[in-house]
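Interim report, section 4.2 (structural modelling).
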Amino acid sequence: MTRKEYNNGVKLWADDVYRFAVHCCGDSECAKDGVQEAFASLWEHRDSVDETKGKGFLLTCVHHWAMSLHRHRKVHEENRLDMAGASTTGPDMRFDLREALQQAAARLPEIQRSALLLKDLEGYSCHEIAELLHVDEKQVSVYLYRARVSMRKTLIALGYDNNN
Amino acid sequence: MTITTDNYELWFYRYCEGELDERERREVEAFAAQHPALAEELSLYDPGLKLQAPPMVYADKERLMRREQRIVPLWRWAAAACLAIAAVAGVWRLTLSGTSERPVVAQATLPQPLPVQQPATATETTIAVDDAAPMAAKSQRPHPAVRVSTLSAKPSETAKAAPTADVVAAEPVSPMAEEPLPAVPVKDEPTVVIHHEIYVVADTEPVTVEEGTATDEPESGIESLFAFGRSLGARLRAERLRVQGEARVALASL
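Predicted structure of the assembly:
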């Protein structure tokens, strides 16, 4: 990947990578760090990364960055507990269904959330997600199944059930 | 591959996503019927439940860009540093040139106008040069300062003395050594002594230098320019020596 291709990649991919990072870490400011780290890594490995694989490389970097971030951060776990406690008081009408889905996705384990984000937001197939996350393709299917079932349970607990 | 409690999630996912054929679908439905808890879980799966997120804009794209870096080679910095050092050294050299032993000469020359002693000095110099002519054959350009002293002493002999006066003599008889002035340094190197002679003569009669050179011996333009430069330098040095001498006299009188 040349310098020009890299700079074009910044224009094309930065927004999507940023959105992915925001959903991975749940914090827009923190997500900027993840984006910068991902692009810095891409620049370092530009000789070995093909231009067509650039975006996937960035998303993989953000995923690993988010995994590392959450390993050292307990706030996420505390938020989970807070959200579980709030479910007994009924739905919070400040959130619409889209925000409720994001809240539900935020409770997912990292690997499930990353797989779900790559599937729903970026439109990758299970095979591509398996390559990006360095896991087996069948395992990606399992992650996606668990993620959707878990989100549905969470929505029901929060009072949002899209079937109602 | 049959459905078990260990791999049912993969089967359920494919079932919900429509990736199974009719036979596989019936197997999944039969498995779910045998496991009511898993069947309830299967009912929670909604393929239409997808994450929705509006597009986001990363504002600091410019910071992520990689610009062409103009790297100045190290040798350029080194060359610039050398030039700077050379310039400073040159200025320093020009500023301090000729000050090492000038004060001593100034003490010896300034109190005395030396109009009478100069002819003898010039004559002796000429004799010494004649003796040392083979050693100094490489220098052919006459020195105006010494020529002047010769002119002032014996105008008729100027034409003969001038061409050889600038020759760097091996063992010249220093005019300063002849004088009863104790402060004149005795030089081992003839070249330096010759220069002292030049300075002394120039200090005393700088104006005569140009007149003798210009009138008696027409020279080319570049030669005249050199002569003018020498005489100008001599004037400046003489002025400096005069001031220094006056300062010393003033200090001695205190």
